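Thread amino acids onto this structure.
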């Protein structure tokens, strides 16, 4: 551990450049998958009929509880089922997963399929449920 501290102290420009590059890469990758929205922004978009929720969790997890009127398209099948979302092309696609781990890659896939307006729920369903918002169980 002492060696790391010595290296950082002796090479601040190298360490600073590494941190800056890593931060830039993380920021760029997160933006490719769509902007994050809060639960209140999601609710506002859906209530104003400007957005549609795509839940990318597996069917079993979706059945345990999902956002009202969400469409279940498991993240492993998004590319092959993107055609099912054609009727929502003019709306904002709001990608929801369990905790935010798959929504970025799904957002990239949907953008590659030509969907321009893709956002993701910040924190996924875990944020939705922790905010005590309603879920539908099927």
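Threaded sequence (138 positions):
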């Amino acid at each position: 551990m002492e060696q790391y501290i010595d290296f950082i102290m002796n090479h601040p420009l190298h360490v600073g450049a590494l941190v800056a590059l890593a931060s830039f890469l993380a920021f760029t990758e997160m933006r490719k998958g769509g902007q994050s929205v809060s639960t209140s922004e999601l609710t506002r978009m859906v209530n104003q009929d400007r957005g549609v929720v795509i839940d990318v969790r597996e069917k079993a997890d979706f059945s345990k509880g999902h956002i009202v009127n969400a469409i279940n398209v498991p993240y492993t099948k998004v590319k092959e089922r993107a055609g099912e979302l054609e009727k929502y092309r003019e709306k904002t696609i709001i990608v929801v997963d369990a905790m935010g781990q798959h929504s970025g890659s799904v957002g990239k896939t949907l953008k590659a399929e030509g969907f321009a307006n893709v956002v993701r729920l910040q924190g996924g369903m875990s944020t939705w449920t922790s905010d005590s918002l309603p879920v539908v169980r099927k």
